[in-house]
């Protein structure tokens, strides 16, 4: 029987990824607190495991490098020398070489040479505490080292979840067989429906109804388990970030404390795939330009309903809003008149403009534009949004970026609304409430209609104008006295009202991506299929509000 070498290669690479993650996190922890002697046991165990797995697969260079690292940990544990930042830098560099070698194994089925880095590690064993740092470069070209924060190609699934899923499939199979057995009598029922006695037929219909109810329940449970299997814990991304922050801190000669919270929260794999790059942009900005010489960067995640709120916050100097205005003006992002009427949060929004992300602009505004347009693109692509606050309200210093992302991209609970002859869906998570109002409840303020709701005037958005709905008039008769409908929505810290003709009810819909022709329209976050076969669009609260604000600015400047 042929041996499936690819299967064993994939298993080795997956195990090696796990061990390298343990080695990296343990080294960073040791650098923070060299007194944690128990970390040496973990480091030796991971290096030994990696060495054995590589030797079994015949990857000699990886096995030798792992063995050399194991020797360092063993010697340090015995007190021969202390593992300082120079040695840790060398070991982290060696792990970069190992990661590059794993990439080569996955893509080309061959490992990379490690002789030079092995020699350098052996120098540590000879020189001990007198080690002065790496004197030679490793064989691996820096261009091919893994530079991106990415989720692994495979995910680990709990056996318990698979057992539940298997049980659901077995139960569904039984119900399918039961439904099949009922189909024969169903045909006979149609043929004999004109008979005088319907007692037997009534029993059969009730039995069929019960069976379909059970089947629907099982489908729902099955969907829930499958969706949970797609969820990946944030720690798979978060655990890769301390190394990046540490390397940037060393390069910039800054003392930075990096705090991570909420890594146990899980998101859909599709969201996780793009999140690493977005967080890398934000953290790089915080290290390079947020913190002056020393400070704290905090990365945290919390679950809020069906969404995750991920925060990157520093206690540095914050955003220079006047400088942002100057740069926006010089690069044609906004006019002088528009900038004069902008509030601080509107000026901060300019940072996400693509023209504010060039190298020249980045230098002018202390790096706060680096990658922010890419961060916004990612969040909107997955149905989320990003906000920036500076200074941080609670402390009065620093900058906080908040990414609001969906937990799952599969299904969403929506409110279906009618506007003229068009049907749209609004995700419930962005809805505060629905209400009815009269024409007399509307007030005009600075080129914007407002609606008085719960003690405050909220912007009233008309979808007919924003979405340019020109097909037909409203099916609901218009008059000053008739009651009109509005959906009160939230977008970040802002609330606003959206007028609709009718709210037709709530539904759970399977969300799909937008068709290519609509992907640039920020008013929509996705599409979905109604039970009757019609395709409808999901409205995006942030996009609607941004569109309305841009209209106000345009009217103000004209």
Care to describe what's here?
With about 550 residues, the protein is of the alpha+beta class. The chain folds into four domains: about 5-145, Four Helix Bundle (Hemerythrin (Met), subunit A), CATH 1.20.120; about 160-230; about 255-405, Heat Shock Protein 90; about 410-555, Beta Barrel (OB fold (Dihydrolipoamide Acetyltransferase, E2P)), CATH 2.40.50. About 45% of the residues lie in helices and about 20% in strands. The chain has helices spanning about 5-30, 40-55, 60-75, 85-110, 115-125, 160-190, 200-230, 235-240, 240-250, 270-290, 320-330, 335-340, 345-350, 360-365, 370-380, 465, 540-555; strands at about 230-235, 255-260, 265-270, 295-305, 305-315, 385-390, 400-405, 410-420, 420-425, 430-435, 440-445, 450-455, 455-460, 485-490, 495-500, 500-510, 525-530, 535-540. The strands form four sheets. Strands 10-14-15-13-12-11 form a six-stranded mixed beta sheet. Strand 14 and strand 15 (about 495-500) form a beta hairpin. Helix 1 runs antiparallel to helix 4 and helix 4 (about 85-110) packs antiparallel against helix 5. It is flat. The protein starts with a helix and ends with a helix.
């Amino acid at each position: 029987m042929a041996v499936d070498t690819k299967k064993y290669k994939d298993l080795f690479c997956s195990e090696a990824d796990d061990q390298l993650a343990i080695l990296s996190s343990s080294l960073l922890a040791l650098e923070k607190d060299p007194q944690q002697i128990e970390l040496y046991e973990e480091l030796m165990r991971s290096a030994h495991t990696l060495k054995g797995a590589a030797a079994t697969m015949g990857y000699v260079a990886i096995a030798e490098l792992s063995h050399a690292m194991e020797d360092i940990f063993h010697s340090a544990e015995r007190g021969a020398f202390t593992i300082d930042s120079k040695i840790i830098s060398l070991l982290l560099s060696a792990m970069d070489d190992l990661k590059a070698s794993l990439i080569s194994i996955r893509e080309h089925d061959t490992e990379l040479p490690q002789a030079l880095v092995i020699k350098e590690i052996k120098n540590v064993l000879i020189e001990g505490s007198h080690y002065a740092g790496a004197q030679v470069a490793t064989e691996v070209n820096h261009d091919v080292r893994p530079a991106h924060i990415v989720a692994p190609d495979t995910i680990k699934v709990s056996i318990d979840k698979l057992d539940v899923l298997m049980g659901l499939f077995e139960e569904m199979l039984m119900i399918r067989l039961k439904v099949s057995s009922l189909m024969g009598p169903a045909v006979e029922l149609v043929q004999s429906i004109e008979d005088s006695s319907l007692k037997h037929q009534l029993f059969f219909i009730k039995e069929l109804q019960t069976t379909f109810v059970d089947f629907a329940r099982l489908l729902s449970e099955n969907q829930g388990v499958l969706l949970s299997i797609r969820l990946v814990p944030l720690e798979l991304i978060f655990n890769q970030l301390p190394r990046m922050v540490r390397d940037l801190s060393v390069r910039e000669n800054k003392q930075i404390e990096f705090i991570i919270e909420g890594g146990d929260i899980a998101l859909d794999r599709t969201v996780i795939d793009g999140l690493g790059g977005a967080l890398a942009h934000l953290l790089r900005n915080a290290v390079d330009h947020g913190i002056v010489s020393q400070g704290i960067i905090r990365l945290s995640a919390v679950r809020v309903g069906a969404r995750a709120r991920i925060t990157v916050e520093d206690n540095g100097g914050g955003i220079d809003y006047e400088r942002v205005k100057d740069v926006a003006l010089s690069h044609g992002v906004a006019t002088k008149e528009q900038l004069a009427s902008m509030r601080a949060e509107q000026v901060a929004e300019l940072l996400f403009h693509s023209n504010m992300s060039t190298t020249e602009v980045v230098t002018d505004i202390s790096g706060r534009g680096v990658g922010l347009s890419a961060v916004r693109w990612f969040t909107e692509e997955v149905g989320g949004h990003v906000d920036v606050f500076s200074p941080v309200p609670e402390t009065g210093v620093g900058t906080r970026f908040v990414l609001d992302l969906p937990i799952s991209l599969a299904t969403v609970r929506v409110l279906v609304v009618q506007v003229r002859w068009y049907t749209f869906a609004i995700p419930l998570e962005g809805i505060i409430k629905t209400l009815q109002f009269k024409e007399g409840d509307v007030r005009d303020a600075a080129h914007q209609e407002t609606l008085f709701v719960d003690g405050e005037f909220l912007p009233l958005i008309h979808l007919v104008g924003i979405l340019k709905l020109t097909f037909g008039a409203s099916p609901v008769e218009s008059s000053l006295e008739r009651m009109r409908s509005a959906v009160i929505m939230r977008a970040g810290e802002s609330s606003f009202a959206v007028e609709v003709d009718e709210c037709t009810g709530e539904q759970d819909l399977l969300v799909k991506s937008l068709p290519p022709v609509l992907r640039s329209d920020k008013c929509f976050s996705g599409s979905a299929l109604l039970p009757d076969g019609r395709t409808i669009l999901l409205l995006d609260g942030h996009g609607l509000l941004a569109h309305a604000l841009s209209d106000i600015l345009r009217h103000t400047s004209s």
